[in-house]
Structure formats: C-alpha cells, structure tokens
C-alpha cells in the first residue's frame, strides 16, 4: 500500500507517460480530452494548448480526470482554468505534437495556452498483491492492503 507521498510521485510519472486527461468547466458542459503539458517547475499546474475558440478558453472552475495507460492509476483534479498566454511558457512547452495542431506555430492567431491550477485532488492506485488478484479472479474476499491506495490531497507537490 503506497503512502500519500508515493501516490503523488507516481501521479507525475504516470502523467508524463500518458498525459491525456478529460477536462471540463463546471458550467454544465461535457469534459473534453486534451493532452496535458507538464512543467516540473510549476507545482499543481497542468497546461493545455487549445484554440481560442475552444469552449474551455473562457475559463472558470474546472475538473479534470486522469486514467493511466495501464489502468492502474486514477486521479480527479478540482481547480481553475484560465488562459495564460505567457510567451516564455508557450516557448518552454512547445513541441512537435502541438505544432501539428497549430500550423501557424507559436504565433498562430488561434493559439491559446490554458493553465489549470489544481486546488485539490483525489488519487487512487491499484497495487494489489498477487493473492489479491487471484481472489478477485475467483471471487475471494479482498482484505485491507490488497485493494490499493487512496488519498485526498490539497496539493499534488511531491514533498
């Protein structure tokens, strides 16, 4: 069973490996899939390159959900989304995958950098033992310690 510090560390490793999240505003619209851009210098922050016409561009209270590539880690983030077109940050996060969506490059007139500041998060990691997996497979009782780890945190900072 992982402690909270391990859960936070694993979160950022898993996000780096598969940076895809569903994110939506609290205005009642559906969440949409976006690729998170991670900046290790920015604690509790995800960045997304979006079009200025994207429904998230208006910003506001938001929620994002993450499922790791191996489906062994889950996270739900609550926070605030806002456009932050700091050119230094755009330059820092720019990559060939983003460029494919914005043919005008960093100066594309439709380009916007959406900043999502995480206020709180709920994290789950399934790290079941072999015996726990066998019990699930054959209908046995899962005991404490075999089900995985869970934490509700006010910051995703590792320390």
Please summarize what this structure is.
This is Pyridoxamine 5'-phosphate oxidase family protein. The protein has a single domain (4-153), classed as Roll (Pnp Oxidase, Chain A), CATH 2.30.110.
Please explain how this structure is put together.
Helices cover 23% and strands 35% of the residues. The protein has 159 residues and is α+β, with helices and mostly antiparallel strands. It has one domain (4-153): Roll (Pnp Oxidase, Chain A), CATH 2.30.110. Strands 1, 2, 3, 4, 5, 6 and 7 form a seven-stranded antiparallel β-sheet that branches. A hairpin with a 6-residue loop joins strand 1 (20-25) and strand 2. The longest helix is centred in the N-terminal third of the chain and has 14 residues, at 4-17. The mean pLDDT is 86.
Helix and strand arrangement:
Blueprint: H1 4-17, E1 20-25, E2 32-35, E3 45-51, E4 60-67, E5 73-83, H2 87-93, H3 96-101, E6 111-125, H4 130-138, E7 149-153
Antiparallel strand pairs: 1-2, 1-4, 3-6, 4-5, 5-6, 6-7
Please state roughly what percent of the residues sit in beta strands, choosing from under 5%, 5-15%, 15-25%, 25-35%, 35-45% or over 45%: 35-45%
Distance between the termini: 18 Å
CATH topology: Pnp Oxidase, Chain A
Mean pLDDT score = 86
Using only CA atoms, what is the Rg?
A: 18 Å
Low-pLDDT runs: none
DSSP summary, beta strand count: 7
What is the makeup of the main sheet?
7 strands, antiparallel
Count of the separate structural domains: 1
Order of helices and strands: HEEEEEHHEHE
Structural class, from helix and strand content? alpha+beta
CATH C-level label: Mainly Beta
Please identify, by name, the CATH architecture: Roll
Q: What's the total helix number?
A: 4
Helix content: 10-25%
Overall shape:
globular
In CATH terms, the superfamily is Electron Transport, Fmn-binding Protein, Chain A
């Amino acid at each position: 069973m992982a402690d909270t510090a391990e859960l936070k560390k694993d979160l950022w490793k898993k996000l780096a490996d598969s940076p895809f999240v569903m994110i939506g505003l609290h205005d009642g619209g559906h969440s949409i899939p976006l690729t998170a851009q991670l900046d290790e210098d920015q604690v509790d922050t995800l960045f997304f390159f979006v079009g200025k016409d994207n429904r998230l561009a208006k910003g506001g209270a938001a929620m994002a959900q993450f499922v790791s590539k191996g489906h062994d880690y889950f996270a739900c983030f609550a926070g605030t989304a806002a456009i932050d077109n700091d050119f230094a940050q755009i330059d820092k996060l720019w990559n060939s995958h983003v460029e494919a969506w914005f043919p005008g490059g960093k100066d594309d007139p439709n380009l916007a950098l959406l900043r999502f500041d995480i206020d709180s998060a709920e994290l789950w990691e399934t790290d079941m033992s072999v015996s726990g997996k066998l019990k699930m497979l054959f209908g046995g009782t899962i005991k404490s310690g075999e089900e995985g780890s869970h934490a509700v945190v006010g910051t995703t900072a590792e320390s």
